[in-house]
Amino acid sequence: MDRASDASLDRHADVLETLAAQHGLTELRHGGDGVVVATVEPGRTYLDLARFEADAAAVLGGEVEVVPDSAPAAQTLSGPLLDA
After folding, report:
1. Which domain holds residue 46?
2. Does a structural domain hold residue 1?
3. Is the whole-model pTM more than 0.70?
C-alpha cells in the first residue's frame, strides 16, 4: 500500500480528527506524505497510535504513520495543521 498524500490527509481532515480523538491524539499536523505528527494524551500507548494508523489507512486507502510530537524527529517533520 502506498502512503497517503498530504492532499488526502487534508481532504479527510474532519474524519481523521474524529478518529484521532478516539485514540487520544490531538493537534494533527503534516509531517510529509503519509506522516501525521500528533500530540498524544498522557496514558496512551503505541497501541493507540497503531489503531489510529490502521483506521486512518482504511479511510484514506493509503498508509499512515503517526509520529508523537514529543519524539525528536517531530521537530524536523512537524508542518501545518491538517486543513479541513
Report:
1. 6-77
2. no
3. yes
